[in-house]
């Protein structure tokens, strides 16, 4: 028996919370098929006494469950960080700040500008997609000074990347544990959202995949993944996201219509979940392509 009561330092760790897989839209949405919205994640980064939350979800029940999880850690939520301007990643910040009033919510100034510009439009879209299940738009994050957050002294580096499903957009690197919280730059076994960007931006997105790869993460928290996804399947996630972007861009060039693009991609990626995202992406991309001709 030892009398040494000195306990080792508690290492920082990242815990991925995966939300529900809801049906959409709740009411007829012109030009939008019925299907499901991909499960969305939020990541808790915790140390001995503190928690930093990355992204805040959007479904009332998920935000409640996420708050319960934060509470059960017994640690202090100091900060909520928002990776990018999409309501599925930020709407929950309102109820979370009410529940954890000592926490602050931050994002990069670029991202905040974008949130302010699109909040009205996204609120309307989200209401059609999710109805009352969705948190109403609330406060906007405060600007983050610099690019570093800390949890019990361990740094979280915010990296602004050129493109993911939209831009401006960011990822978070936690060097101490080789984790990347990828926002919507990397997808895992879920059809990526390509309907909100242009073919030139898909090429920029490929550069973001390279950025993530160069960080040599041991674990990647994707913004959307299956509930049973493996966050340590790093090589697969990177390779599949890269291949998917290249395959979609190539198929887009030759597809005669959105249906054919969906058929090509589902044949290549039969195990990817949430075909609705692919249908939406194909309708948007092909619609823009044909309108430009
Ligand atoms: Zn998303």
From TrEMBL:
Gene3D superfamilies: Ribonuclease Z/Hydroxyacylglutathione hydrolase-like. InterPro entries: Metallo-B-lactamas, NDM-1-like, RibonucZ/Hydroxyglut_hydro. Residues 39-224 form the Metallo-beta-lactamase domain. Coiled coil: none annotated. It holds the Pfam family Lactamase_B. PANTHER family: METALLO-BETA-LACTAMASE DOMAIN-CONTAINING (PTHR42951), METALLO-BETA-LACTAMASE SUPERFAMILY PROTEIN (PTHR42951:SF14). This is MBL fold metallo-hydrolase. It comes from Streptomyces humidus. The lineage of its organism: Bacteria, Bacillati, Actinomycetota, Actinomycetes, Kitasatosporales.
């Amino acid at each position: 028996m030892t009398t040494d009561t000195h306990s080792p330092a508690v290492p920082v760790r990242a815990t991925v919370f995966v939300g529900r897989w809801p049906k959409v839209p709740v009411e007829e949405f012109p030009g939008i098929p019925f299907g499901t919205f991909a499960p969305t994640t939020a990541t808790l980064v915790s140390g001995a006494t503190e928690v930093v939350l990355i992204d805040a979800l959007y479904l009332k029940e998920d935000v409640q469950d996420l708050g319960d999880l934060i509470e059960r850690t017994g640690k202090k939520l100091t900060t909520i960080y928002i990776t990018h301007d999409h309501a599925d990643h930020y709407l929950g910040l309102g109820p979370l700040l009410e529940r954890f009033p000592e926490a602050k919510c931050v994002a990069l100034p670029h991202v905040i500008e974008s949130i302010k510009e699109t909040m009205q439009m996204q609120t309307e879209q989200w209401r059609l997609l999710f109805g009352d299940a969705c948190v109403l738009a609330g406060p906007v994050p405060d600007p983050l000074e610099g690019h570093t957050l800390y949890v019990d002294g361990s740094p979280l580096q915010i990296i602004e990347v050129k493109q993911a499903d939209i831009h401006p957009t960011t990822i978070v690197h936690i060097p101490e544990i080789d984790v990347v919280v990828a926002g919507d730059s990397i997808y895992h076994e879920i059809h990526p959202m390509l309907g909100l960007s242009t073919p030139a931006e898909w090429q920029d997105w490929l550069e973001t995949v390279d950025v993530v790869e160069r960080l040599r993460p041991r674990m990647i928290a994707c913004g959307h993944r299956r509930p049973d996804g493996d966050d340590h399947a790093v090589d697969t996630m990177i390779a599949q996201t890269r291949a998917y972007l290249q395959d979609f861009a190539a198929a887009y060039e030759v597809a005669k219509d959105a249906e054919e693009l969906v058929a090509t991609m589902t044949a290549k990626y039969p195990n990817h979940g949430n075909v609705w995202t692919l249908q939406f992406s194909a309708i948007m991309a092909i619609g823009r392509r044909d309108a430009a001709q």
